[in-house]
Design goal:
Blueprint (H helix, E strand, L loop, with lengths): L1 H17 L13 E9 L10 E5 L2 E7 L12 E9 L9 E11 L2 E6 L4 E6 L2 E6 L2 E6 L10 E7 L8 E5 L2 E7 L6 E6 L3 E7 L7 H14 L1 E2 L13 E2 L4 E3 L5 E2 L3 E7 L4 E6 L1
Parallel strand pairs: 3-5, 16-18
Antiparallel strand pairs: 1-2, 1-4, 2-3, 4-5, 6-7, 7-15, 8-9, 9-10, 10-14, 11-12, 12-13, 13-14, 17-20, 19-20
Length: 274
């Protein structure tokens, strides 16, 4: 494929340039077709490209378009048709000026775990199997006998595990424990008479960093059935409209509002009306 050949050329010449020789090859001319996952790019007043095209976990091109609303396709695998132009800085990735969308493929899938009163969204490559009363997710590439990546279950209980970092999951108090050696994360969410558990185990997979990013997105997507959420009243503090919530203190919003977490890394958000 022309785009793949061009990418290899860019990588090779970049390596040569870093050793003091070589220049960037000319961009392929004419109409080009590129397939990859479309991701928002960091804002820049200088660099071109409002989106990034990712192939096999590697950022390969920037993308922009005056004809297509690329926002509609972000986080999806898309096939775009357009032409290449150099970026403002020739050392940056080139820009695909997209003129049309050839194909769109969903990259995420919603799962309703009705027995647990949980709805969440995972990458399509995370395949769900229910075994021994637990919902297990495995990577499609690992097959049915592969190691479990994520397990979701609940147990009777009233107390969250000790030693974790307080977080907020769907405006509900929770805690997260991380084993630095294995990379395993356990998230526990307090509900009415039960504790919801999520155990994420990326192991030694080569793409473990990417999987951890995906797990954060999974946590952000979780929706809990309201009848199973623990009513904590105001004992942990409450927030009103547009006031901060979540964070290390686990600040909750008052009735009729939810905590719109902006970043799961910090677990801090703003109270919004339901």
């Amino acid at each position: 494929m022309r785009s793949s050949t061009f990418l290899l050329s860019v990588v090779s010449v970049t390596l040569l340039s870093s050793c003091g020789g070589g220049v960037m090859p000319p961009l392929p001319s004419g109409e080009q077709t590129v397939t990859g996952i479309l991701k928002p790019a960091e804002l820049s007043a200088v660099r071109r490209g409002s989106y990034i095209i990712e192939q096999d976990g590697v950022d390969v091109y920037y993308a922009e378009s005056s004809l297509i609303n690329l926002r509609e396709y972000q986080t999806k695998r898309v096939t775009l048709r357009g032409y290449f132009e150099q970026n403002t800085n020739s050392e940056d990735l080139p820009v695909l000026v997209a003129e049309s969308v050839v194909d769109v493929e969903e990259t995420s899938q919603e799962h309703s775990l009705s027995a647990l009163g949980v709805r969440l969204t995972t990458p399509v490559q995370w395949k769900l199997v229910k075994r021994e009363g637990k919902h297990q997710f495995r990577l499609e590439e690992d097959g049915e006998d592969g190691d479990t990546l994520l397990v979701v279950w609940q147990e009777d209980g009233e107390l969250l595990p000790d030693g974790g970092v307080p977080i907020v999951v769907d405006a509900t108090r929770a805690t997260r424990l991380i084993d630095d050696l294995s990379g395993t994360q356990i998230v526990a969410v307090k509900r009415k008479g039960t504790i919801l558990h999520l155990r994420f185990s990326p192991g030694t997979r080569a793409n473990a960093d990417r999987l951890r990013e995906d797990f954060i997105e999974v946590l952000n997507s979780i929706e809990l059935k309201s009848s199973t959420i623990e009513d904590t009243g105001s004992s942990f503090g409450t927030g009103s409209l547009s006031t901060p919530c979540g964070g290390s203190a686990g600040i909750l919003c008052k009735d009729g509002y939810f905590c719109d977490v902006q970043s799961f890394e910090d677990n801090v958000g703003k109270c919004r009306k339901i």
